[in-house]
Amino acid sequence: MKLMWQLVLLVSGFAIVATAQASSIQELQKQCEDAREALIAPLRQQAIDECIADRESGRSGGRSSRDAREHCENFYADFGNGGTTQSGGFRQRMFHDIPECQALYEAEQAGSRR
Alpha helix locations (H) across the chain? Predict the structure, then answer.
C-alpha cells in the first residue's frame, strides 16, 4: 500500500512538473511572438503604405483607395512570417533570433532532452 502511494505521488509530481513546463513554454512563446510583432508591425505598415501609394499612383495598376488598401493589407497580412519561396526554397521568419525567442528555443530544447 505504501508503494502504491509513493507511485501516485511520483506520477503526480511528474504531471505537475510537465504542466508547469508547458505553461512556461507557452508564456515564453507568447513573449517571443509579442516581441517579434512589436518589431514587425511598423515594417509591415510601411510596406502596406508603399503598396497603397504605388497602386493609387497607377504604377501598379489603378485602384480606388479602398480597393488598394484592402489589397495591400491582404497581401502583407503574413509579412515577417517564414515559409517557402516561389522557387521552393525556405525563407526564415523575421526576428527569430531576438533574445525573447532564443529563450523559448532553449527551453524547448531543454524539454526535449528530458
Answer: 2-57, 65-75, 99-113
**Is 95 in a helix, a strand, or coil?**
coil
Is residue 76 classed as helix, strand or coil in its secondary structure? coil
Q: 15-54 pLDDT, tens per residue? A: 344 444 557 999 999 999 999 999 999 999 999 999 999 9
CA distance 26 to 66: 38
The residues, ordered by sequence, that sit 6+ positions from 80 with a Cβ below 8 Å of its Cβ are 36, 40, 43, 44, 93, 94, 95
pTM of the shown model: 0.67
Residues ≥6 apart with Cβ < 8 Å to 101:
32, 35, 36, 95
Q: Which three cell numbers stand for residue 15?
A: 504531471
